[in-house]
Specification:
single chain; mainly alpha; 3-stranded antiparallel β-sheet; 12 helices
């Protein structure tokens, strides 16, 4: 990677992914890794969204589930809109996406990452109780969730705006590069910004999360009606926060390292930080589907629904009732589920055979049925 800083410029760095990388291995490996992370993460977050929407539809929603759904949506946006830009850049080794994408790519990605950290911090603050299905029975109003999400996204999209101001496409021979060029006149402001920005975007959510955890654990043990359930939910959120903090730490570390004017970090570390940034959005649904009881049970339900619908010749709906002499087993056959579907043809054949068989009066083994008729 060759990058020479022009004169009269206080800062000069790539935007939207590292360009001018040498080596065909990196050009091939990085897009493949990013595409794999994006596909797996998108499938996981879509499943989590589907499960949580089904929970709300069945009247089992809560404030935590609403915020977790917002978190899954944010992860989907990062994986589907931000990661492909880096994959294309690493493959092309130059910038081919135009000036608008160059100006907005880092701003949009950092806005989503910042919103994600604050949404997770707000999730710890949320209540774990079910949202009542009727307005008359509501003990609280979840309106604060909409207000909190609106506030989080407004702050997250406004705070990284200085990054968008100095991103531009510059020619490099026959190719083009997307770089951040900070002139000397703005060096003092951007130096202060690059010190405050990582603190607000990374450290403040960690401090808020720790404070919310302490309060939530105290309430779960001493005041909650079901401390065991509350503690499980808090443990899931604690694992989410820990995974997010560890996977985002290299990205924020290299970001601060470069912006504060120190020696440029190794290229391998910068690539590793980029991969971990997107892996963070793929790890969250895995944690939810393995540790969160409601999401795990919802995943099992979706699996059973999918397998039942894919079964040929035998529908998953209640089986038809028998008639005539089969009245004795009407309840059993009507309530049979998909696990007993292999037994139904035998019962149907047995009772059909009884209805269609004529016997003599003196050979009828059940004469009382004939007398009743």
């Amino acid at each position: 990677m060759d990058l020479s800083q022009p004169a009269n410029v206080s800062f000069f760095d790539f935007v939207g992914g590292i360009q001018l990388l040498r080596g065909e291995e990196v050009r091939t490996a990085m897009p493949v890794i990013l595409v794999g992370v994006c596909v797996s993460g998108a499938i996981g977050n879509l499943l989590v969204l589907l499960i949580l929407l089904r929970e709300f539809r069945n009247g089992r929603g809560s404030e935590v589930k609403a915020l977790l759904a917002s978190l899954a949506c944010t992860d989907l946006v990062i994986l589907l809109l931000c990661a492909p830009v880096r994959a294309v850049t690493y493959y092309k080794q130059t910038w081919t996406l135009g000036s608008f994408v160059c100006s907005t790519t880092d701003w949009f990605q950092h806005s989503c990452v910042m919103a994600k950290t604050f949404i997770l911090a707000a999730t710890i603050r949320a209540r774990h109780t079910l949202v009542p299905s009727t307005a008359s029975g509501s003990h609280y109003s979840p309106v604060w969730i909409h207000g909190a999400l609106l506030f989080i996204w407004i702050v997250s999209m406004m705070f990284p705006i200085p990054q968008m101001l100095y991103a531009a496409v510059v020619p490099d021979g026959r190719d083009f590069l997307c770089v951040s060029v900070v002139p000397q006149c703005a060096s003092d402001f951007m130096s202060l910004f690059y010190k405050i920005y990582p603190t607000v975007a990374f450290l403040v959510p960690i401090i808020l999360t720790l404070g919310f955890y302490t309060k939530a654990l105290h309430a779960a043990v001493n005041q909650a009606p079901s401390p065991q359930h509350q503690s499980k939910v808090i443990l899931v959120l604690l694992c989410l926060s820990g995974a997010m903090g560890l996977t985002l730490l290299p990205e924020w570390g290299t970001f601060t390292w470069i912006r504060l004017g120190y020696s440029r970090p190794p290229v391998g570390l910068m690539l590793f930080a980029q991969v971990l940034l997107y892996a963070c959005s793929s790890v969250s649904p895995v944690i939810l589907m393995t540790m969160y009881d409601d999401v795990r049970q919802g995943l099992i339900t979706l699996w059973f629904i999918a397998t039942c619908r894919s079964t040929k010749h035998v529908p998953c709906k209640p089986c038809p009732k028998t008639e005539g002499n089969g009245a004795e087993v009407q309840g059993t056959v009507a309530n049979a589920d998909c696990d007993d579907k292999d037994k139904l043809p035998e019962l149907e054949h047995f009772w059909t055979g009884r209805r269609n068989t004529r016997v003599e009066d003196d050979q009828d083994p059940v004469p009382w049925e004939r007398d009743d008729k």
